Amino acid sequence: MAHNEPIESYAVVGDMQTVALVSRTGSVDWLCLPRFDSPACFARLLGEPDNGHWRIAPAGAGECTSRSYRGDSLVLDTVWESRKGAVRVTDFMPPRGKAPDIVRIVEGLSGSVDVVSEVRLRFDYGDAMPWVRRVDGGILAVAGPDSVHLRTPVDLEGKDFAHASKFRVSAGERVPFVLTWQPSHLPPPDPVDPDHALAETEDYWAAWVSRCTYDGEWPDAVVRSLITLKALTYEPTGGIVAAATTSLPEALGGERNWDYRYCWLRDASMTLQTLHYTGFQDEAKQWREWLMRALAGDPEKLRIMYGLAGERRISEQTLDHLDGYAGSKPVRIGNAASDQFQLDVYGEVLDALHLDRSCGMSPTENAWSMQLGLLDVLERKWDEPDQGLWEMRGDPKHCVHSKVMAWVGFDRAVRAVEQFGLPGPVARWRKLRDKIHAEVCKKGFDKKRNSFVQSYGSKALDAATLLIPQVGFLPGDDPRVVGTVDAIHDELMHDGFLRRYDNESTNDGFASEEGAFVACTIWLADDLHMIGRIDEGRALFERVLDIRNDVGLLAEEYDPRHRRQVGNVPQAYSHVALVNTARALSEHGTTVGRVPRHEPRATDAGRPR
Fold first, then answer.
1. What's the CA angle centered on 401, arms 354 and 353, to 5 degrees?
2. What is the spatial distance between Cα 556 and Cα 576, in angstroms, rounded to a whole number?
3. What burial letters (b/e) apply to 1-38, b meaning 16+ CB within 10 Å?
4. Residue 566: count of CB within 10 angstroms of its CB
5. Which of 62, 377, 474, 530 has its CA 20 to 30 A from that of 253?
6. Residue 34 preceded by cis peptide, ω within 30
7. How far apart are CA 317 and CA 481, in angstroms?
8. Does residue 589 come out as left (phi exceeding 0), alpha (psi in the -120 to 50 range) or beta?
9. Same domain? 186 vs 253
């Protein structure tokens, strides 16, 4: 039976190298070890219970009574209350030492409650049954390169290829479980003290959040989004994955199921904006350095996405043994879009590095020479068709957003010369910048529709064109921007949320529908504010805040018909858009035509929270 627990049922705990998804029923249904992109040892999220999960809950209980993160942290408290008493399960992953650990502590709050733990370990995305044996204090499971130690003071009974324990907790009693992954050829890892690890984890997050300088509206939503972005950061390299999951569908039962456990260059500029403007300069520097390492080499062979350490080969394959979330097949690992030509990423990278300079970050060695190489390629390729922002698997087109981002690339190059004195053929770049601008306004704007369109010659609208004023291509009060916002609002808004484009008028290679795109809805809120529809923009933004789950997380998309989140989760792009737009709406009050994202503001220093 295909898994169908709502996507919004899941919270995440993580150690900045991977995350576990924990449902409201107390089940860990997704965990890849030791990295975000490693094969899962709990893969029930994309299949059946036998594909691996670990549930701790009161005997016979369903969903929890309540749950929340402990303050501004990734320590998750889940509580069940009944006539017999109340019990809390605290889940967390300590900052990584030698090996990844997930710690689960069961604590009696009142009365006496019978609790059941069932762990069903399966390696290689639920396909490899491990050999399990008893060891001091728990069990050891081994299959191929993987081994997992599960340590607990309660007895674990093996039955039906799972290990269960049933025990009673009374008020004040605590029962810990610690699961630790280790390469199977290495000696067993040192045991973790659960209480010490809990204190250490709480201290880590308290210290990290104390660096936040955001002082605008919606602080709780913003800080939770920032914590989520930190959780999606692969700490050894500074790379930030697009999401923690693969193949959660963009429409229930559909085929738009992608692996997002990689780092997209497109996310660089917006993510750097988020980190710079909220006080997290160290993370911004690490992300910038990851970006520079990924870019190293022939600029002609720039990829749109890379692995966590900058790996270039991300071949795509399907896992036929998994039924898919809610029967949504195929289940994919890897991502074939990594081989696409997407013109806009050149502009995104050049915009990101310009933002670094504007915020006073010291340049890396040879950074400018690398950008010169990117600009040479952009000069040769800016007028070629591409797959665009949405990575369409149909024929390439002259996508309007891609051309706008080519303009951004040359615009930032001109600014690098004018503002920072860097050497370069600025007259030629100005000429190219102006040529692209004129072409986009002529070929990408439909006068009859009074709107920018998806691609040259097309009548289709595209939410990506909402970024035109945000990157400074045109001011927010330009009539063409206003017309585009009006058209997109009127035609792509469904049930209060925005689709990125209309599937009937866009051949993207797939027949199935999809949900509304969270980031696009937030971009529309930003644009409504920019063109003077301030109250409407704020109301739309708060509508997005209302669809976050009970612990503040957003997936990639939202299905307003079924009132469910869809797509991979938690989605970095959604949370980045949330932070940047919250800052814009609160910082600028009723200002119309605010400064676009590439310009530093006078208040960017911020104030302590």
1. 10
2. 11
3. eebebebbbbbbbbbbbbbbbbbbbbbbbbbbbebbbb
4. 28
5. 62
6. yes
7. 41
8. left
9. no
Q: Which of 207, 200, 237 is nearest to 94 (CA)?
A: 200
Q: Are strands 146-151 and 564-566 parallel, antiparallel or unpaired?
A: unpaired
Across 124-138, 156-170, 386-400, 589-603, least confident range = 589-603
234 and 145, same structural domain?
A: no
Show the tokens assigned to 269: 């500029």
| Statement: residue 606 has pLDDT above 50 | no
Residues in the chain: 609
Band (595; pLDDT cuts 50, 70, 90)? very low
The answer to whether residue 2 is domain-embedded is: no
Q: For residues 577 and 271, what is the distance between their CA atoms, to the nearest angstrom?
A: 9
Distance between terminal CA atoms of the chain?
47
- Domain harbouring 424, CATH code: 1.50.10.10
Q: 265 burial class (0-12, 13-18, 19+ CB within 10 angstroms)? A: buried
Alpha-carbon span 166 to 541, nearest angstrom: 46
Specify the pairing of strand 162-170 against strand 101-120: antiparallel
Q: Whole-angstrom Cα distance, residue 388 to residue 375?
A: 19
Question: Does residue 604 sit within a domain?
Answer: no
Cross-strand pairs, 222: none
- Give how far the C-alpha of residue 198 lies from the chain's centroid of Cα atoms, to the nearest Å: 25
- Rg for the chain (alpha carbons), in Å? 25
Q: Is the C-alpha dihedral spanning 541, 546, 549, 552 positive or negative?
A: positive
199 and 265 part of one domain: no
| pLDDT attached to residue 425 | 97
The CB-side HSE value for 321 (13 A sphere, CA atoms) comes to 12
SS (H, E, C) 381-408: HCCCCECCCCCCCCCCECEHHHHHHHHH
Q: Tell me, yes or no, whether 221 and 177 share the same domain.
A: no
Q: 């996507």: which residue's tokens? A: 7
Q: Based on the number of CB atoms within 10 Å of its own CB, is 207 exposed (0-12), middle (13-18) or buried (19 or more)?
A: exposed
505 has a pLDDT exceeding 50: yes
Kindly report the pTM of this predicted structure: 0.94
Token pair belonging to 3: 């898994």
Domain that holds residue 247: 211-296+305-587
465: amino acid identity, one letter:
T
Q: What is the pLDDT of residues 302-354, one digit of tens each?
A: 999 999 999 999 999 999 999 999 999 999 999 998 889 999 999 999 999 99
Q: What is the pLDDT of residues 378-401, one digit of tens each?
A: 999 999 999 999 888 788 999 999
Dihedral sign (CA 108, 109, 110, 116): negative
When pLDDT is averaged across residues 568-595 and rounded to a whole number, the result is 79
Q: Which residue has the tokens 């004195």?
A: 421
Residue 419 near residue 375 (C-beta atoms within 8 A): no
Looking at the 3D structure of the chain, how many domains does it have? Answer: 2
d(C-alpha 17, C-alpha 181), whole Å = 13
